[in-house]
Amino acid sequence: MKNPMLDAPTTNDALIQRALDPDALEAWKLLHEFYHKPLVRHAIRSGLNPGEAEEVASHTLLTLSQRLSRRSFHHESSSFRRWLAETANRFIFEAHRIRRREKLSAMAVRAIQECLPPAFVPEDELLAREKMEAHLWSVCLARVRIDSSPKHWQIFESNVLSGENSSTVAKRFNTSPINVRVIRMRMIGRLKREWKQLAQQAVELPE
Fold it and tell me: CA dihedral in degrees (8, 116, 96, 162; nearest 10)?
C-alpha cells in the first residue's frame, strides 16, 4: 500500500529551518526543487492533466511559502510531507470540483456506495456528505484507474460502474467470468485503500 504522505524525498530539517528566513533564497530554491516534481506527479495520479497538476504544485508551494513566513511550522520531516500532501489534496479536490467532467451515473454511485463507507460528517449534514463523497470518489477512482492496466480498468468499469454481469463482460474481453470477479475484488480493494488514505489525511474540502 502506498504511503499516504507525499511520495517525495525526505527533507532535511536544517533546510526547512533555513527557509524560515525570507531572505534565504537558496534554501527556498532547494525546497522548490525537492517538491515541485513530486507534487505534479501526485496531482496527475489523482486524475488531473499536466496543466492542472502544475497549478496544484504552484498553489501548494505558494501556500508553503506563506506558512513558512509565519514561522509556525512543526519541522519533523514526516509531518512536513504529510502537511504538504494534505495541502496539495485540497487544491486537487478544488480542480475536480471545477471541472466535474466525469459525472458518475446513478448506477455507478450505488456501486461505489456499496464498496466504500460514507464520509465522516454529522448525520444532519447530508448535503455536506454528498459533496465530500463526490470529491473523494473522483480522486479515488482516478488513482485506481491510473495505476491499473487499461484492460483491467475497462473490465472493472463495465462490471461494477456500469452494472454488466460477469459473463457478458468476460465474453467482450475474451476472459473468464471468474477472472472478471477476481479483477473486481482486487480493484475494490485498491479503491478502499485509496479511500482510507484520504480519510487518514483528514482533508478539508473547498466550499
Answer: 120
